[in-house]
Amino acid sequence: MNKTLIALTLAAASTLAANAQAESATWTQKILTPETALKAAEAAKAECVKRGWQVAVAVTDPSGLP
Length: 66
Description:
Blueprint: H1 2-24, H2 34-50
């Protein structure tokens, strides 16, 4: 009985460890639609104009590319 319990415990532990490694290798990323990005840029520009600031507004992807 003890050998069976130990074997089942080890099998369960190794399965959980394998799943934990697989989960850490993936991620999700939310992406703005072009329409939402444009609205954000326009809102930022409007706020800067309202405060009298001269700025350039750009929306980039996570890599910094427009």
